Amino acid sequence: MTGYVYAEKDKEPRQLGETPKSVLGKVGLILSAFRDNDFALSLAELTARTGVAKATVHRLCQELVAGNLLEREGAKYRLGLQLYEIGLRAPRQRTLREAARPVIENLAQKLDNAVNLAVPSGSELLVIENAGRHRNRARSTAGGRRLRLHCSAAGKLTLAMLPEQYPLSRVIPLMDRPTPRTLTPARLPAELARIREQDYAVEVEEARTGYLAVAVPVRGLDHAYLAALAVIAPTAGSSVPRIHSALTEASRAITSRLAIFEAHRAPL
């Protein structure tokens, strides 16, 4: 399905791939047009963001409202509760969240920083679990929010671990620079090679001035990359080696818990 990537201040989406011709593909565009801070969108906004004909968007929105996937808010539309309920039933994510939750909570308390767990989702990352807050009281990334790939530690880790899913030929044209320290397209390939070699990613004020992040992979029993486990902390006073060590231990604990969950759920 075609995805859209947004810069922090973008008013319009930047398209990744061609607009789908199928009804299902267009429905996917409508649902994915909602950004983190969007409570409701008008028909005109949905049309502009999806690139789908206004009449088609209107018809599909009506059908999505009837199916409780969207809700009407005056003349605007908002995501329906049914979407959240469906998402909670996804077995892979549910198991991963259940295995990770206590580990993430302990890690956040131990480091006194924000911790999140993010999985690949279209052209971005989706945060499925989070805990804690930064020492200066800034909140962690809320569950359900999305992370950009090129300027977050979790995102760069995912680009490095899944090069076939996220080819640079598609990622680089969409790169922006939210801070002066954000990587340029020319530096990204070498950065991803370094991440693959060291098996973790760091970003220092690439996404937000005053903050750094460290991310490590969470792997399944077959060693496949499942998610990025990241700590977000103020740049001042934070130790990357200490954070990395704690993250590595936490990642192994999540994998061990996944093994226990799978063993208990295996058919006799």
The largest sheet, given as strand count, sense and whether it forms a barrel, is: 6 strands, antiparallel
Q: What is the count of β-strands? A: 11
Cross-sheet strand order for the largest sheet: 8-7-6-11-10-9
Question: Which value, in Å, is the CA radius of gyration?
Answer: 19 Å
Order of H and E elements:
EEHEHHEEHHEEEHHHEEEH
In round numbers, the mean pLDDT is 85
Outline: globular
Structural class: alpha+beta
Give the terminus-to-terminus CA distance. Answer: 37 Å
Count of separate DSSP helical elements = 9
* Unreliable residue runs: 1-17, 136-143
Helix content: 40-55%
Strand content: 15-25%
Task: Report on the architecture of this protein.
The chain has 268 residues and is of the alpha+beta class. It is 41% helix and 21% strand. The chain has nine helices and eleven strands. It has helices spanning 23-32, 43-50, 54-66, 81-88, 91-111, 153-161, 168-171, 188-198, 240-265; strands at residues 3-5, 14-16, 41-42, 70-73, 76-79, 114-121, 124-131, 146-147, 201-204, 211-219, 225-234. The strands form three sheets. A six-stranded antiparallel β-sheet has the order 8-7-6-11-10-9, sandwiched between helices. The chain has a three-stranded antiparallel β-sheet with strand order 3-5-4. β9 and β10 form a beta hairpin. α1 (23-32) crosses α3, α5 (91-111) runs antiparallel to α9 and α6 (153-161) packs across α8. The longest helix is centred in the C-terminal third of the chain and has 26 residues, at 240-265. The relative contact order is 0.11. Mean pLDDT is 85; it is low at 1-17 and 136-143.
